[in-house]
Structures are given as C-alpha cells and as structure tokens.
Sequence to fold (199 residues):
Amino acid sequence: MTKEHYLQLKKEFKIRFTITIVLAIIASVFYIKILLSNSREVPYFIICIGTLILTNQSLIAPVFYKKKAAEEEHPEWKNLSTKGVEIPQEEIQKRNGISILAFIIVIVGFFMLYRPAPKTDVGTEVIKTNSEIQSVPESSTDKESSTVSNLTPQDVQTLQELKEDIESNTPSDSPSLDINKAKDLAEKAQQQNWLKRGE
Fold:
C-alpha cells in the first residue's frame, strides 16, 4: 500500500465515521420523538439498529481494517495530515449511495411509525361537562321533584305494601314474578292512582 492510498483511506474513514455519527444522532432524535408520542417504538428501534449496522459494515469496517493494517506496517504514517488529499470518485459514489439510502430508511421509517396520540385537555373537558350539567333545564328537575312531592302518605304506604308483596311473592328459585300476580299488583297500583299515564 502506498502512502497516498493510505492517506485517502484515512480521509475517507473520517468522512464515513462523521456520516455515521450524524445518522445515529438523527435516528436518536426521531426515536425519542416516537417514544414520547407512544407510537410503535420497537419496530423503529429495529430499523435504526439495522441501518446503523448496515452503515457500519458497508462504510466504516472495510476502510477501518485497511487503514489499521497499513498503520501496523508503517506506524509513522499515523501522524500524517490528510489535507489536500483527493479521494477517488468511485469511493465517493459508493459512500454517497449508502449514506443516502441509510438516511432515507431512517426518515421513511420514522414517518411510517410516528402516530402521535390526539391531544386532550382535561381541564376543558371538565369545564365542558360542568357547563352541560348547569345547562340542564330547570323544568325537567322540577317535574321530577313535583311527582315525588305530590305523593301522599297513603301513596307511600301503598308503595311499601307493593314492595313487600313483590318480595313475599317472589319464589327463591325463580328470578321473576308470576305474570298474573304482576298484573294484579299493577291493577292495585292503578286503583291507588299511583301509576299515571303519560300526559
């Protein structure tokens, strides 16, 4: 390996390593955003790890091992500057193709799996519910209270008798009353003017 080829490898390694670090930072930011939105974080995590492994194996590892082998043969080359060194066009194309593919995978994966939960404001929901309760017309509550207050002591006594009759006439093994007894109880209630038909 010549010195010029070693310097090209050294410069290419720096560029590829920087690209991988930037990719890892972008993937981390997207992953945190997915975590905070309660989206599907496990598939995105797998996509990010797979992409970083692909980038590492295809971009960094080949250049790193060649560079390391050259440094073992020529330790004095480690301190050489890479300023002004030109990288071959085919290496640039290979690096750019793999880098663009990795960024596309990370970004498309994010937009496929990012599903933010709809924002709800608990305070407004409580206020809305409270306003709904306050907007109930007073006439409906007045009707209910008037029907209860219109009961005479005799009506209350009749209701208690009906309740006792129902409890005493219900057999323990049957969940419902006999139909004839239920009709009798309904007629008795009508006679006492307790059941009122809708007006």
About this structure: The helical segments are 3-36, 41-73, 89-113, 122-134, 138-149, 153-169, 179-191. The chain has a mean pLDDT of 77.
